[in-house]
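Example record

The entry below shows one chain as it appears in the dataset: sequence first, then structure tokens.
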Amino acid sequence: MNTAPDLTVATAIAATDQTNAAAAPRIKLQSHGFSIDHPDPELGDRLMAATLGVADREAMHGIIRQLVKASVSGEGPDEVTLSFMLSMVKSIRPRDAVEAMLVAQMVSVHVMAMRCAHHLADADDLAQHDSAARALGRLARTFPAQIEALNRYRSQGEPAITVQNVSVTDGGKAIVGNVTQHARVIVSDKKAASAARNAPKAASARRRREAADARREAQP
């Protein structure tokens, strides 16, 4: 008996294949340095550069060399740690050279903080315990500061928002005029606001004049 194909499964398989095809290649450590593990060297370079958020081969190799040095554990670089660091960089998705450098620092600080946590748990005496605790504390404070710096840098390109129509409920206050908001700063048209504040007074004076004119006309 023929059955209809499961389109959901087919779509998931196709998406997985596309993801694997565009996945960042792995880095293989060698005695003289490292190499990008990809059957097509040129495509491998492009995929790795896109992962790191840099525009050229020199910048890509520079970031990788720094990550390799940061992955050193014991006598040399650790390929497992390096693979983890590159995976974290890919997850954060740096978009330019500045973000690439900051994200490389972030993953390096995280790796060093975890090493300090291990040393703290494995300390043999009070001196080792205090040294590891101080280092872990500094690194733990640095990491959220780096996250804040990355968020602040990324928010610089957000467009300003202009509000032209403002509705106000009873008891509220309004700024009449164009209001432009960006990075929590509000700039208003002071002349329009002043006119709005004076409008009720002018209307009241006009009504008084009209009432006086009507009384004069009514007199014999």
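Notes for this example: The longest helix spans residues 126-154. Helices lie at 7-21, 41-52, 57-70, 79-92, 97-121, 126-154, 190-218.
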